[in-house]
Amino acid sequence: MDPGVIKSYLPLYRDALLLTLRIGWQGVLLAFIIGFLCVTAIRFKVPVVRVIVKGYIELFRNTPLLVQLFFLYFALPKIGIRLSPEFCGSLGLGLLGGAYMAETFRSGLDNIPVIQQESAESLGMNRLQAFRYVILPQAVASSVPGFLANTIFLLKETSVFSTISLMDLMFTAKDLIGMYAKTIECLTLLVVFYLIMLLPVSILGSFVERRLRHAEYGD
Amino acid sequence: MDNALLRIEHIEKAYDEHGVIHDLNLVVEKGEVIVIIGPSGCGKSTLLRCINALEDIQGGQILLDGVPVKRDARNISAMRQKIGMVFQSYDLFPHKTVLDNITLAPIKVQKRTRKDAEEEAVALLDRVGLADRRDDYPRQLSGGQKQRVAIVRALSMHPEILLLDEITAALDPEMVREVLDVVLTLARSGITMLIVTHEMSFAQAIADRVIFLENGQIVEESRDPAKFFTEPETPRAKEFLRTFRYER
Question: Is the ipTM of this complex over 0.85?
Answer without folding.
Answer: yes
